[in-house]
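In line with agreed milestones, the collection of sequences with tokenised folds has grown. A representative record is reproduced below.
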Amino acid sequence: MTNTTNTSKNTTPDFEDQAIKDAPSAAQKIFGNSAKPMFGSGSKSRTPFKIGMIVALLAILLVLPIYLQGTGEAFLLSALIMVGLFTISALGLNILVGYAGMLDFGRMAFYAVGAYAAAIVSIPIAGLLGPTLEQWTFPFALILAGLTAAFVGWLLSLPVMRLRGDYLAIVTLGFGEIVRITIQNNPFGITNGMLGLPERGQNLPSPPFFDALRDMPAWDPGILDIYFTVTRNVYWFYVILLVLIIAIIVVRCQDNSRLGRSWAAMREDEVAATAMGVNVAKAKTWAFVLGSFWGGVAGACFVYLQGVVTPEPFNFFNSVIVLAIVVIGGMGSVPGVLLGGFLIMGFPELIRWFAMNHLVDVGADIDGLVSSMRNLLLGLFMVLMMAFRTEGIIPAKRIKRKLFGTGGGNKSNETDGETDDAALATAAPKGGQAHE
């Protein structure tokens, strides 16, 4: 007995040292081993074909603005920019709807908060930085806008913590309208009401490197009748593409983290998740905060792109469009959100381009046609989704396995860092007996 006690005493410090060594950092407690599924063992499923497709897509996106601007198709370039902005906002909404299972009809509220926050702080920050450094106002405004929207999301999460389903949807819908009407009423004289920001006589500072790139001489490669020069649309295409790529990486890491597993458990069954030790209140709060952050970032990009912001774009219908992007593309699926953004926002603008170039005869009311086309597509896609593919066009792998099974035996047990529940059940000890 004495020897056993001494042995245990001798081995205890080693065990404690190992426990301290393996203790997670503060960031790991929140996000878990978020980078591992992206760049570690989870990358086994990334075949050379998938990697080649991603590289090819990035190459096309990098060359596309040069071709469109060089051939005079500035309208298509501006349409792609709006697709990117709505997709960034939809990625934030995907955290709430797709990952955490919380229905949100007030997405444009955070878009508006981010836009107005960026417009309000930009001119004072530019004054502090001075004429030489004022171009770096945009990165500061972008971060502040995201943090402001995240703070507003945290405030919204407090009263709706116990709500779910239709009740949560109604509250978020009302919150979106409250934000829009409050902006219109110019509280404390900071939003300038319907006239918008910045006020007359003021201008937002130029973003980094924009003036230098715009003053560069035009480039004529001598092929395909391309005459390329850096314009505002070209610059913002690359900026929004960069923000979109960062958003995709961060959202994917969050989904594959410990917090993402909490969201998945809460989405499937909130009561069961609570019984298994998931802190549902904390998971809901983080879902609101992180989802709202990307709405604020998209809003900041929007106000710098337009140069002015007014309350009109932040209406309920645009919130429905963002939600439709997530639902139609595939809830919880990042590729699905990207495809949904192109279908809902890009396809009607493509119809407008056909009409503007007289490729189709639609009469004089092109704007009315595009608006009607977008409404028609929303209704048509929703009906088709509910009838034939409720999980979306590109469903999340976790949801796809739940609906249709693995479909590939043991080969599909682990994909992109997602472990199959059946494999865990098989490997778990049965009857409470521990394996020797």
Summary: The beta strands are 414-415, 418-419. The chain is about 70% helix and 0% strand. The longest helix spans residues 107-133.
